Structure formats: C-alpha cells, structure tokens
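Technical note accompanying the year-one report. For the benefit of new consortium partners, we illustrate the data format agreed upon in the data management plan: each record pairs a sequence with a structure-token string. No post-processing was applied to the example shown here.
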Amino acid sequence: MARNFNTIVNDENVQPKISGLQKKAIAVAVVGIALLVVGAISDSDQFYRSYLLGYIYWVIISVGMFALYALHNVVSGAWGFTIRRFLEAGVRTLPLMLILFVPILFGMHSLYEWTHTDVVAKDHILHQKAPYLNETFFIIRLVFYFVLWSGLGFYLMKLNRQIEENRDPSSLGKIQKLSAVTLLLIILSGTFAAVDWMMSLEPHWFSTIYGILFVSGGTLSGLALTIWLLVKFRGNRPLSDFLVPRIFHDMGTLLFTLTMFWAYISFSQFIIIWSGNVAEETPWYAVRMANEWGTIGWGLVFLHFALPWVILLSKKAKRNPQILSAVAIWMLAMRFMDLYWLIAPAHLRSTFSFHWLDIAAPLAVGGIWMAYYCQQLQGKTLMTVWDPRLQDAWHRIGNADAADSAYFGDTSSVKEGIHG
C-alpha cells in the first residue's frame, strides 16, 4: 500500500465538480427563498416556525462537523485525514449561521412564549426563569456561542494550516490538547444552545439530557453529510489514491456508533421522564405519543435506529461506498424527521399539521449553506497536504487492510467500486 505523500493534489475535475454542486445549491436556494417570501406574506407565524426548523437542521450540521474536526485532532485516525477538508469547510460556515439566525430574532415573539411580558407576569414559573429567559440575555448568549465556536474552529484550522505549510509538527501537542478542551466546550455550549433555541419553545418543560441530544444528533448529521460528499468525490485525486475499504469501514463504524449513541440518549430521556411521571415533564411526551405524532415517534424507532443499525452491522455493507452513501442520505432524512418531532408539537400541540413551508425552509437555508460550503472548498486540496501523523496512520491502515483481506478474501471488486 505505497502512497506518495509528497504529491497530494487535486485532479482537474475537482473544481468543476464543486462548481456544479454550488450552482445546484444556488438554484435550490433561490426557489426556497421565493417560497419563504410567499409564506412570510401569507402566514408569518408559520413562516417563523418553519424557518426555525430549517435553521436548526443546518446549524447542527455545522456544529456537528466542528465536533468531528476536533475529535479527529485528538485521535488522529486515518479516516479523518480523508475528510479533514470537508470538515474544515463545515467549520467555516459557522459565521454564516449567525447571520442566518436574524429572521428568528424578528420572530421571537411569535416563537417564544417567554418573550411576552404580560404572560410572564401571570406565570410563576416563567417569572422565576426570567433572569435567564429574556431577550437581551438570549441575544448575548447567541453571539457568545458563535464567537466561541468560530474562534476555536478558525484558530485550530490556522494551527493545522501552519503545520501543512511549514512542515513543522511542533504545534501538534497544542492542537491535540486544545481540541480535547474544544470538544468539552462544544458539548457544554451546545447544551445551552439547545435549551435556548429548542427547549425554551415549551418553557415549563425541562430535561437535563436534551442538550446531549442536540450535540449527538448534530454530529450524526454532520457525519452523514460528510460521508455523502466523500463518496461523491471518491473517484477524484487525491481521494482516489487513498480511499481503501478500511477507510469506509471506519466511517461506517463511526456512523453506526453515533446512531447507537443517539438512540441510547433518546431512550434514556424517555424512560427517565416517563417512569418518573412528574407533572411538569410527562406532558411533553404525552403530546408526542398521541395521534400522528406517535406514529412519527415509532417511525423514528424503526427507521432512524433499527433499520440503519441492522444495515451497518454488516462489515461488507460498511465497505461498500454506494450502500454507505445510501445509508448516509437516509440518515439525513431521518434527522429531519427527528427534529420535526421535537420542534413542531411545541406550537401545534396535539394537532398534527405538516405545512409546505416545513419543506421550503430547509431547502432555502440548505441551499444557502451548501453554496457557501462549496465556496469554502474551492481552491483547496481534498486531503491534508502534509501531516507527520499521516504516514503512520496509513501504515496502521495497511496492516488492518491486510488482515481484512485474509478475512474477506479478494477485495479487488470492493476497491473497484470505491475508485469507480
């Protein structure tokens, strides 16, 4: 498994492919924005609810990619070197997501009950939570989250870029330690962001696990999108020179692990609240287990967890890029279903209703996000140019791949599928 680590460059087809994806994203964004304008004029309350759903769907992908980037800086697995550029582009979308939050600020009175002073004055619980749940402090925390995420993310990327450009590994220890701290800060700040943006939609309800759901779900979404992009560009150099079955196996294993973790956290929250049977907590689940909401909830059990879990149990499935990409796309759809189940009942309560704006908003925000994301990929190699850990990681992959060949037999057909 000889690899030339000194000639990691893009082939001539990479930039046109990125530009093509960007043009499609712009087209989707234009259509989505046009639909949002129509929706805002016809039903402003529904516009804000749908926009919040679409925004949350994409912002957790940015945060999730940031978490994966920090994770790779800590563990230095070979899988991370093949997706580092995709993750770095995701980190660079964080300032954009702060800007895209602005419509939600205009719609706070429509979305959040605690922004109404007359309601807070008559409600003892909201009155007690007012020092935290107020508009000024909400905006301050909002800015703080994105300054923290963007500041840490851009600084880590700067350190990694210096290593690549100067071929000086002296900063590796600093990057590893800072990334470990960054992971903890992402979990903590992500928890507060989840409370602010999602849980406070129903300010009487609370859960100490809710924030972990936000971060784990975002990391799962970020990984799913990254896998889709990796498979999309797998036939282009330099990725085509380095993608071996073991890399896809590791990516599939990580997707499997995050799926299991999401399911564990989701079930833990449910069983603790439901068995506790506390009046302030159980109504949240009572609404989401009734009527069509209950159908969606059971759908999440089987379609978000059981189905991908069964598929990803297979080593051969994880090594097949087409199957892995299909599972990743499916998980992106399930992540939308999960967020809809979490967010929409806050306003609709026991009445189920799916509005066309619930599709238009994710398309609009997603089109803008993907167009900007592609811009961040332009002019950069699809892989790390130089890293002292890269060759050692590939040596470990070579040993693992040799052992896998002994287990699976001839893997040439799998490799042809990867590079084809």
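Partners are asked to follow this layout when depositing records. Residues 14-392 form one domain.
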